[in-house]
Amino acid sequence: MGFPQTYHVGVLGFSGLTAYAGFFEVCKPKKGDKVFVSAASGSVGNLVGQYAKLFGCYVVGCAGSKQKVELLKEKLGFDDAFNYKEETDLKSTLKRYFPDGIDIYFDNVGAEMQEAAVANMNTFGRVAVCGVISQYTDAGKRAAPDMIDVVHLKTSRPVLESIPSAFIGLFRGDNIGKKIVKIAED
Prior knowledge:
The protein has 7 helices and 7 strands; from the N terminus they run αβαβαβαβαβαβαβ. The protein starts with 13 loop residues before the first helix and ends in a 5-residue tail after the last strand. The radius of gyration is 16 Å and the shape is globular. With 186 residues, the chain is an alpha/beta fold. 35% of the residues lie in helices and 20% in strands. About 4% of the residues have low confidence. The chain has a 5-stranded parallel sheet with strand order 3-2-1-4-5, sandwiched between helices.
């Protein structure tokens, strides 16, 4: 097809399919919808935000570092973004970014983030529960405490020996987009 092989594990693979189906089939957006994406710099979240912007929505994402927030706003075209690690009250934070409420929440995190987003949802708002990274990194957290569920980004590591550090970095929040470890040359 002429695309780099890495696209087939990103935008043309499961991440792209998940983002597309979750946003367009589950959330059924309308132009002008107000969309919040958690873990917005991840392999699915970054695509959802870009799809939403291309569709004509207002999009805010959250991420875990200043670098990721800048990427969301400057490179990926999100209307706004914030570093959730710098916020003490997520419900108030989301109210600040969405004073008229959230129409679509694309959840990649779960736990307190999901609770805060649901508290700010508009009537007939839609939620796509895609991931629960909060639960992967803290077994004490519940994924859904209050509920009854295009730029290609990749982080490449060049050699097989880097698999352990790449995996650990995934849970430290070091990655942006899809984490890929190259095992052999093409």
